[in-house]
Every structure is written in structure tokens, then in C-alpha cells.
What does this fold into?
Amino acid sequence: MVRSPINKNGIKAFPVIIAFYFILNIQFLSGQSTEYKYYYRVFFKDKGEVKLSEINPRMLLSERAIIRRQKSGIRVPDMSDIPVSREYINVIASEGLVLHCTSRWLNTAVFKSKEAMDVGKILALPFVSDVKAVKLPGIKSSYINKLDFTQDLAEQSYDNQLSMLNGISVHNSGFRGKGVLIAVLDGGFLNTDNVTSLKHLFNRNGIVATRDFVAPADFVFGYHNHGTAVLSVLAGEIPERIAGSAPEADYILLRTEDTATEFPVEEDFWTAGAEFADSAGADIISSSLGYFNFDYPSMNYKFSDLNGSGTFVTKAARMAVSKGIIVVNSAGNERDNEWLRIIAPSDGENVIATGAVNPDGTISSFSSAGPSADGRVKPDVSAQGVGVTAQVSENLARANGTSFSCPLISGMCACIIEAVRDAKNTEVTEALHYASDRYESPDSLYGYGIPDIAKAIQYLQDLKIVRPENGVVIAPNPFSESFRVIFKDPPQKLKVELYSITGQKIASQNFSNYISRVYEMNVAGKYPDGLYILRLKTESGIFSRKIIKADNP
It folds into this structure.
């Protein structure tokens, strides 16, 4: 069972999400009634009678998800990929409770009811290990404006936020996130379908799926504009006005945050969204969300819980990382508040927590401080989070918060993946650390500092791609659709020309500052099979090579 190629919003749905996902979530998909005021997270002891050896991974995951895991040497599937037992779900539902969502990773299910449930009765079931109330009625939320952000007219340089990361050089070298899939978890994407800087996404079907996990449906273009601002920082594109960090990436838009209240159930929504992203084959999760205090103080976390495994959402984020996904999360905006510190899930190991700096590179007054409760360096890296150019309406604006440094780093990660396709997610994290300006002396405000993305790409290419001893190497040759040119060092200035055997120039590209050791040309469907001459002009010399295009090389 797969989704229809086009959903009711006109968005190209990713043809994946697992049959088990739909079978388990019939109630989930049918919609949410405001009559349900009590939400309970049920933890299961096991997954029932399951033989992992008999499970076809393609019944659980998309081909893209399987390839991502295989790249990192991750077993496909493992027990965490198996859905929650349908039998267990049915037993609990027979008590009058309604299933809202499940987590196969953490083996839990969220049930909702109109009246308070008898927790003891559920706990007495032999397959249940624990039950926790994760949303309750009867209190006015103090967090109803939690995702609101200040907006000023965008007067400063629109590209400072990218140039600080050396991202403009990365983009000018042709790395703009193409072929990378980013899942954005947020509280809503109000007006995204009308924002001018994002029109190009809709025109090229760059939004491949949408899903609301709060009020279950596919529609996400309402509720709040925070996700719209985040997406514009990632993908917004208007020449000389706004430049997203990964304008050519594809996107999954997931609403996981209830902007009307603040309860732990949002960690379950976040987890469900992350699992959806995993199944669809997302390479990156970009999450400008976080958790520590709730409407019921008795549900609050203590800072000691932010030890990398003490909160539900951090466990989910770590599971996403274990599946080969790059998880980027805001460190939080709490340093000028009583909490002061980072928020979950940014405390997770190999979760890239992003701090926020001013346009001049100094730490902002609000950017949450590290380290994690167990003493690890947090935040991981920092990017501009004050005066970030974004768009949520007709006019461009400047936005403040680690919510906006997060998509800058997420998009740059997409460019890194495009440049070094074999890099594992944990290697990308390592490269970001290494390429940051405080790598030798990280601290609790900047983390490892502000990364130079070109340096991160070079670090990974040196790790993953053999350096030619002299000149250049072209492979494969013969080729069918594309070939790669591998240089000993980044050529800086690069001019690429392709000639027919008769001497006619048929393609050319010119780069004033090429930051990569690898150049790739795709000529699929453009030229007939035959012999061609490739001419490369760099600062170190001019190289000419014969190359052969053949459908079956």
C-alpha cells in the first residue's frame, strides 16, 4: 500500500509510507476531535510474535531509506523498525481509548480519551511496561505564543547569513542541495503556498510530502508561520533579496508542534514525524523546536534530564541518527531566561545543536548555553540567528532565534551531502566540528564555533575520495550518463569545456572560485554516444582528456 502520487494539496507525495504505518494508524489518519482532552503514552514490553528474518524491509521502508542505511552499514531492518503490535493496540482500544499515533522506534503508542482513564487497568496488562499522561485539560497555557518571533524589515545584507559560513562559495561551486531530501518539523507552514520566495519549490514539485501529526491530516499550510520562516531560510530564493541555504533540495513538511499548548505529547508527535521522515528516506531532519517546561509544572524536565538519553524526544532523535539521518536542532533561546541552558533534543549525541550569533559573529544574548548535563560540548556549532532574512508574507523580514540558525546549518549539510555523497551522517557532524573556528577550544556558548562549509567539504573529500598523485582523474570513462573529475587539490578557478570530436564546443561552465576536489557533469539524454574531448582550465594548468559516452559502457 502506498500513497497516491498527488495528495489533495497538490503536493507530490513520496510513494513510500509503509503498509504497516497505515494499518496501525487508521484512527490516527481519520482526524482529531477537540473532544479528546486526555492523552496517554503507553510503553510496551515487546512487539509480540515477530520473526525479523521473515520481514521484507521494503514493506517497512522506501528504497531511498534502505539505500541511506546501507551507505552507513546499518542493518535493515532491525527490531526498532517493526511496528507496535496490532494485537496490543486492539486490546487497549477495546477499553474505549482511541489511538492517535505510535512509535515503532521506542515501542510506544499514544491513546486519547474524552475522560480520564484508569491507568492502573492498563498497567495491569501483561504486555504494558508503563503508562504516562502526556496531555491533560484544565489549565490555560502559558506557551500559546511559544513559536512567535520578532519580524523587522530586512534592511541589512541578505547574504551575510550565508557568507559567514562560506556558503556563497559553496553555492557558486554548484552545491545547492540538489538530490537531498530534508524533513522540516515545525508548528505549521501558514502561507507557505503563497510566499514568493518559495514559489520555485511548488513549480518543480520540490515539496514531496506533507503531514500533520497534531490534528492528523495532510494539510500543513495553516496554524502558524514559524515553519514558513524556517523553510524560507532553507529554500527561499529571490535574486539579490533572499538566498536559502539549500534552494535545490527537496522537502517534506511535517507539523509536529501544537502551538496552542505545551505538553509532552508533542514529543510523541515529533517522534512520529521523525519516523515518517525516516521511512520516506529523508537525509536530514531540521527541527527548530525544543522541550523542557510544560503547562503542568509537574511534567517539566530538570536540566539533569538533558544528558543525551533522559527525555523521550532525545531518545527519538538519537534513533533517527542511528538510522543514518543528519538531525539538526535549535539549541534554544533561553540564556536570557531562567532556564539558561540548551533544550531537548539538542542534547542528543550526534544531534547537531545550533547556537545563534549576531551578524558580526558574536554570540547572541539569547542563545542557550551548554554543555549537556553529562558534560558534552553543546551547542555543536553556531550560525547567524539575529537579523536572518526570511519571508512569511509579501515583504521580506529579519527574524531572530536559534530557530533560524538551525535551517542555515541544515541547508549547508545538504550541500555537504551533495558534494560528498558517500559521507555518513556522523562523518558530516565530525566535519562540521573540525571546520569550525573554535575547534581547538570549544566552549559552552559557541560550541565548536562557526563552521566553514567549504573546509568541511574538503575534510570529507580527503576522507572519502582518493587524491590523484598528479593532474586529474576522470571516472567512469567510458560513461553512460555522468562522469566525475577528481582533482589533487581544489582548483579554485575552474573552466570546463566539452567538445565533440569535430571540435565543436557543446557545453561549458566557468567557476571563479571552485571549492571542491570533485566536479561532476551529467549529460544524460543530451548528447549521442561517441568520443568527446574534455578541456579543463585551472590555476595550475590546462588539461585535455578524451572521454567516451556509451549507453552500456
Summary: Residues 1-33 have pLDDT under 50 and may be disordered. The chain has three domains: 19-135, 158-422, 472-549. The first helix runs from residue 19 to 24. Residues 472-549 form a domain with the Immunoglobulin-like fold (CATH 2.60.40.10).
